[in-house]
Amino acid sequence: MSQLSNQEVYDLMESAMEFKTGKKSNIGQGKFAINLFFENSTRTKSSFQVAEMKLGMNEIEFEASTSSTTKGESLYDTVKTEESIGASVAVIRHSQDKYYEDLVNNHDLKIHIINGGDGTGQHPSQSLLDLMTIYEHFGTFAGLKVGIIGDLSHSRVAHSNAEILTRLGADMYFGGLDSWYTPEFAQMGPHMDVDDLCKEMDVVMLLRVQHERLSAEENRNFSKEAYFEKYGLNMDRVNMMKDDAMIMHPAPVNRGAEIADDVVECDKSYIFRQMNNGVYVRMAMIDAVLEGDNAGNEVTDKKRQVILR
Question: In which pathway does it act (predicted)?
Answer without folding.
Answer: Pyrimidine metabolism; UMP biosynthesis via de novo pathway; (S)-dihydroorotate from bicarbonate: step 2/3
